[in-house]
Amino acid sequence: MGHLRVGLAQLNLRLGDLDGNAEMIRAAYDEAVGLGAQVVVFSELTVTGYPPEDLLLKPAFVKGAARVLGEIARHTGEVQAVVGFPEDSGQTGPVRLWNSAAMCSGGEVRGVFRKHLLPNYAVFDEQRYFLAGTAAGPLMQIDSVSVGVSVCEDLWGPPLTADAPAHDGGLPSAIGSAADTSPALAQVAMGAQLLVNLNGSPYRRGKQTDREAIARTRSSTLGVPVVYVNQVGGQDELIFDGSSFVTDAAGEVVCRLPAFAEQVAVCDVEVSNGGTPARPGRVTRTRDGAVNVLSSRLDPLAEVWQALVTATRDYVRKNGFSEVVIGLSGGIDSSAVAAIATDALGAEHTHGVSMPSRYSSDGSRSDAADLAANLGIDFRTMPIESAHAALGGMLTGAAPEPEPGSDDEAAAGLADQNIQSRIRGVALMALSNRFGWLVLTTGNKTETSVGYTTLYGDTAGAYAVISDVPKLLVYELCEWRNRQPGGERIPRACITKPPSAELRPDQRDDQSLPPYELLDPIVEAYVEGDLTVAEAVEVGAKHGASAELVERVTRLVDIAEYKRRQSPPGPRISAKSFGKDRRMPITNLFR
Q1: 351-367: per-residue pLDDT in tens?
Q2: pTM for this prediction
Q3: Of the options 1.20.1300.10, 3.90.320.10, 3.40.50.1820, 3.40.50.620, the CATH number for the domain spanning 304-513+560-565
Q4: Closest by alpha carbon to 167, among 579, 576, 520?
Q5: Residues assigned a catalytic role
Q6: Which three-class secondary structure state does DSSP give residue 240?
Q7: How far is residue 156's CA from residue 142's CA, in Å, rounded to a whole number?
């Protein structure tokens, strides 16, 4: 037995910044080599960042990636670097690229592995861009150790999806079966003593458990260690948590890098039949010289919070902004978004605006002010009453007073509520134009699902921070944040008050929507579970919801599709978010 020192380069890449990424890759390579690495492993499509989407259709982009890969290769010495890049196959037709991993050393690209398994589900569209590789090799030789290289989905192997929770439970049991399509099997048969896997694996709740289960099963089944390297950072809707790790030949996780943080580390991996002379113990050495055997997993709420913080920080900064503004109502949703933004960007870069109307309670105004004071953020008040009155008067000629008790009166009331929300949206966008602040919207997944939002009102903005966070989880996250060091940040009243849009006298959410304890599981079943209405009725019955209620909720979900199509992107934390994950037709008669 011996040990191989493997460098894990968990980087926050900037998609499309080819030269900037190359600089980061070279610096990480030098750092890992300085820590004694014998090979340095990077993430999937390292050169470009992941996912490049239709940038891959631009010939100049692909040529630029090839140029940069050459520069990275020329930088390498005797220590090998494994770097992901899009490779032009030279074939004709709309799909002509390989998703490849280059093995670079001595100033050259010494070998290339081409990804076999191209995911085309959930947020992935790889068959739109890539051809499937067919060769399991070449194996990489490091001293006397043979190393198999693969890319992301190649490690999972069986024809089951890596991102659908209904399938994850059965995936490890399929490994090694007749259905197993992973090139890892052929690589071990060719003599690989270690497997390294480059990843662009987006975060969702519970994903790390599934990743480690797959790698542990691979290692214990094949009898070789697995090195799994993932990128970190936010990219539009996707969040990458890093969480790179190593499993030994028995399937034990012996190294894990922190979630949601850049890290370059060197891990001593025990390999059989070769390698450098054995040394006692397994260690991970980091840039500060510390010895870190295993980074702890975050608890579930901390994980989600850090995911949202990472996504918000990167969306703002990578798009050239530094400051954000949030409409503060004194409610739970805007409080959560303000706290996330403050953790992501700092209090000095976060602005809160209270925009009270004639219906805003004194408590909501004071709660918004207390929240801003607790967070230490800039706080401004901009009453909307004058604009509300002016717009109401402007509409009088075109829309005369309705008859009391008529359907027209109800429609007029709804129109008046939406006017208030749209005034607030206009006000926030005006501040954005004036000061260069990026507007963060505050709608949660439950309300977004059923259309309990105002198009061009509270949906107006650039990034929907909690649009994939169900309402009840918003409460849990706020309670978690208040338990962290530094004391309570979100006022207790913001958490305990009955939720209300405050767009008419004495309004409460439960006057228009079922209790969230019923609504959340119905929405989850219908949206994330892809159920029919009849199937959702069965799920709702288990939670005490009537068939009539479930049918009303699912109808609301269906008719709100046009609103969601026009709403800003938001970070994905579930197995099925709105956007890339769920592409439902707006005009749709299937129930």
Answers
A1: 999 998 887 777 778 99
A2: 0.91
A3: 3.40.50.620
A4: 576
A5: 44, 115, 152
A6: strand
A7: 25
